[in-house]
Amino acid sequence: GAGLAAAASVAAAAASRGRAAAPRGALLARAAGRRGAALGAAAAAAAVAMPRGAQAEAQNLPVVGGEDIMRQKAHGTSPHEVQQELRWGVSRKEADRICSFNRDFAEFAGYWRTTNFIPELRTQKEQNPEVEPETTFYDSVTGKPLFVAPRGRTVKAFLEESFTHGWPSFRDNEVIWENVRCLRDGECVSVDGTHLGHNIPDGSGNRYCINLVSVAGKPVEA
Questions:
Q1: Looking at the predicted structure, is the pLDDT value of residue 51 above 80?
Q2: Residues 6+ apart with CB under 8 A from 205
Q3: Residue 149, strand partner residues
Q4: Residue with the larger pLDDT of the pair 61 and 23
Q5: What is the mean pLDDT of the chain?
Q6: CA-to-CA distance for 199 and 144, rounded, in angstroms?
Q7: Which residues pair with 147 in a beta bridge?
Q8: Is the pLDDT of residue 30 over 80?
Q9: DSSP three-state, residue 146
């Protein structure tokens, strides 16, 4: 639809500025310098906008986990390999490397745009233009739900932010905290040891910059 087309134009503009191609390391380096100020500004804005109970709840995010989550297991930091069939045509080899044998590196910026993710989302939107379709993102190793997006914003807004930064970008209310943790250094992981990405806060609060290959799993029936 028109919204997705507009989001695509934002992607082209970002790419022309070189932002979409920036490596994750450079983004983290820039974020480290401004993280304190960004969090302070976000907290101040939240304090004005939210009642006290909501403020206390917001201050508990992200949910912090211990380094032991990422201890060595049967398959790197994971209990086993990634699922045999992943969604959106992502590379299983790349997913296994990023999820289980990696703490710092990422799929290349914009990789998620080369998959079937956007075409599938466009089809959902065209089938029901009046609804903002939510997508549940599952752990590529365990199949547990990790994120649901967009929530509290439009598909267009979710895509524009993700295009701009180069990776799918989630906000606090889009994280399923039962299954997700952030370590003290900002690394975002699943409770089972899957490397997901990093929390890179900005003026709007926490922003979870996530590898699509890490959240391309299929749900596992209990």
A1: no
A2: 39, 42, 46, 171, 172
A3: 135
A4: 61
A5: 83
A6: 20
A7: 137, 175
A8: no
A9: strand
Tell me which residue of 188, 202, 190, 8 sits closest to 113, measured CA to CA: 8
Topology of the domain covering 67-214 = 2.170.150
Distance CA 62, CA 180 (A): 9
Helices (H) and strands (E) in the chain, counts: 6, 7
219: tokens are 């749900």
User: Rounded to whole angstroms, how far apart are CA atoms 169 and 80?
Assistant: 26
Burial class (CB in 10 A: 0-12, 13-18, 19+), 55: middle
How far is C-alpha 214 from the geometric centre of its chain's CA atoms? 9
Sign of torsion, CA 98 103 108 114?
positive
- Report the amino acid identity of residue 117: F
Q: Could you tell me the pLDDT band of residue 53, with boundaries at 50, 70 and 90?
A: very low
- Residue identified by tokens 């749900």 is 219
pLDDT category at 16 given cuts 50, 70, 90 is very low
What distance in Å separates the CA atoms of residue 215 and residue 116, rounded to the nearest whole number? 14
Q: What backbone torsions phi and psi does residue 105 show, to the nearest 5 degrees?
A: -90, 170
The domains of the chain are located at 67-214
